[in-house]
Every structure is written in C-alpha cells, then in structure tokens.
Specification:
The protein is mostly helical. The chain has four helices and two strands, in the order H-H-E-H-H-E.
Length: 99
C-alpha cells in the first residue's frame, strides 16, 4: 500500500525542473488518440526513470509519479503496470525509500 501526504510545492524542486522540461514543446495534444496515449505512457516511463536514477525514491517523487499516473486521458493499464514495476523494485530493495 502506498501512502500519500501533502507537501508544499516549494519542496518539489527536483520534479518541477523535470516536468517543465518535458511539458515545453509537448505535442501530445495535437497527436491522434493512440499516438497521444503512447506519448503519455512514454512520458510517464521517463518520469519514473528520471526520479529513480539515483537509486532513491523520495516522498515528493512518489507523489509526482502518482499524480502522473492518474493524469491524462483516462485509465491506462500500461501506466499501472509501470507503477507496479516501480513498487516491485522497492520491495526487492533495488530502490531506497527516502523521506
């Protein structure tokens, strides 16, 4: 079970820099339905990779990932599968949970 808590926006510096660089020039709104979903899935995967590259997963990073999971055009089993893989990495101690 993943617990989420509210944090001030100012503590999300690591995520904001990444999110703003990914959003600038984002053309997924102009793409077709399937292309937009693929782009959204790709962006979600890149977000996870970026936030876990150092082997740590901070609470603010987890919140950013959860927000991205539920954002978008609708329910995506592919995004849920990527999130499940992230959880499994934590369970196998491949990622260190940082508070």
């Amino acid at each position: 079970m993943v617990m989420v808590r509210e944090t001030p926006v100012s503590s999300r510096n690591r995520v904001q820099g990444y999110a703003s660089s990914r959003v600038q020039g984002d053309s997924s709104k102009r793409l077709g339905g399937n292309d937009a979903r693929q782009q959204e899935l790709s962006d979600f995967q890149h977000l996870i990779e970026h936030l876990t590259a150092d082997g740590r997963l901070a609470r603010r990073d987890e919140e950013a990932i959860l927000s991205a999971l539920v954002a978008g055009e609708g329910f995506s089993t592919a995004k849920c599968a990527l999130f499940r893989q992230l959880q499994e990495r934590v369970w196998r101690a491949e990622l260190y949970l940082d508070s």
